[in-house]
Amino acid sequence: MLAVGSEKAEDVCAALVEALPARGLQQVQCVASDCASVKLYTNVRRILPNLQCMTLDPVHLPIVYENLGFFDKEYATWRKKTAGAVCLRKIMSKFNAVDSSLAAQRWGNFYRGYSSGGSGALSHVESVCRDYIETSAMSKVKARDIVDKLDTSKPFLSRFEFIEAVAALSATFPEDMNRKVTGANKRVAHILWCAADPDRTAWLFNNIRRRALALLPSGMSSNEALHAEVKNWFSETQQIHQSTLRLKLIILTIGKQIPHFLAMSNPTISQCSSRNLLARALANSLWTDALWQLWCSDLSQEVHAAKASLSYNESRKIEESKSREWNMKRPAAKKKSRVKRTVFKLKRRSGLRTQGVRKCI
Question: Which of 105, 257, 292, 320 gives the lowest tally of CB atoms within 10 Å of its CB?
Fold first, then answer.
């Protein structure tokens, strides 16, 4: 894990190059992102020689629908799933479904942003159906029929089928559509309308084209789960040096890898939680009796042990000096000396006024 300053394509690529070795970069074939674009794909393609496709995360939209779109003083449904949220989960899960009776060529080639396949302009029928998302103007009977007949085990066969399903969601649950997303201050209906954009739907359909791979997680759900853990780790941290942040991320990465390795080498203990596995793995001391006796003998001979050479010591000193210099640049506040007031030192006010202002003597 690395700390990244922003989600720009350049910063993401620099972090990948720093985090993964050359062999690791060669093994990557698919990248999932919650903001797929041509710029991100072209930048990532330069460092990942075997990259085949990029997919738009189908889990991110339900997360926005559930966590951000329902903070309302009247209803107070913050972080609570409504019927509309459950329905949207079912719709987006169709991008993770696999139909073994259909060939992979059914959905065409991978969309890479600069190719026209799958991202052409919307037809008249698709445009009208997309407008129904913002207006919730689809027939209630037809919308309810589409929602009731959703088959999550079958993937979408066309772009119109996806747009129609979202329009049916908007018509079936209009009370959710008028609520606003707190961050962007936009209606939920507008967020869903943007999700039906030709470019975004083309990136979404890359998930269906990629489903033939085994053990592929659902969108970025594994990444979102890791984000929740990282947020929990730093919930009480307000400020931290960059070197300390890197060191802490390395320690937390090791803490994640140890229980994963134990669960893979011993499948029977995979039922235990990672917290228990980590505690049991670290319970054994790293010191053997021979090493401890050798260490004690060195100390008895008045041999002073040198401090460990840590990789982040120098960078930590540089950051501390920069912080100290920044504090010195701040304008110094003028301190007023405290004056003890007595009956002989009280300020007297004269009755004279100079330009309408009474002066103190």
Answer: 105
